[in-house]
Design goal:
319 residues; alpha+beta; Lipocalin; 2 domains; 6-stranded antiparallel β-sheet; 7 helices; 18% helix; elongated
Length: 319
Amino acid sequence: MAFNRTSALRYAEKYWNKPCSDGFFMVTDRAIRVDQKRTELNAPASDGWEALFVPDHDGSGRIVGESAMFQKPNGDEKLIQGWRGLADCAHYICKCLESGGVNLSEMSVPKLVKQLRKRADIKTLGQRLSRSQAQQILDLGVFKTGDVIAYFNVDPQGDYGGKADYTHSTLYLDKDGSGVGRIACHTVCRFKHMPKNDEWWLKQGSYAYTLLHFASDDPAANDAAHFEGWWKVQYFGRTEYYRFARTGTVRWTYTAPKTAADQAGGGAKHYGHWFQYPSEVRICWQSTGTSERWTVSGRRNSYDIKVNGHSGKAQKLFV
């Protein structure tokens, strides 16, 4: 069954600033049950108490965290959990995806990333990319609303004492009218422009980014048999050789193949995904964030290409 992006987005919007529909939220070492806290704090829903995540601001108005609160419409509040220890991002993403038909239940970001990457319907378009590399892939237009961005901490002063691991996850919501990428997440809660136009997008120097794309609704590669095999690619003074597979994967090497049956090695650093659209082929290289667009140059086996904006040519071999 294809991932229902619309349902996932509706859920993300409904619960962006409140505990999810299963009635709990995560801190670093346990789950906090909202109903249990209602009893402990004498905050019944029948009296108008709503559980919300409320932003914490510094003196300049900048969001520096949030607190889980029971609130009434008149502004009365009861603290459930302060900022320290809140860690609900993976749980929230799982519930959004579950609403879209994806069965996942992970409370830690590293485990969430691991489980997503195991799925047959997931393509990792970029793995631990820099901000500029991730932006190149996003600008290619293959990554879609409802796909997942995992944030790998690279700041020694960053999350969890500078832990070198995945520490945050978000749902991608595409770009807004001004071209700024938007996300939905918990801890700190965000959805598009909320709260108060705050954004947590691709931060320079704080994280590396892994882009996890649900591929079940991608356009069909109707010309897969044509692209399968070896291509000679020349751009920016370089010559490389690509081997396309019908499955939508592609590998590159500097070594020219001797026969059509030769395979391309190189491991993960030489691995990517290709996508056929009506007027062009798009390629995402997983480890470098390099993005490519191929358009027919007038002959079936020859293409004009753009590699990160650099012009070049691609010619099929062994035809």
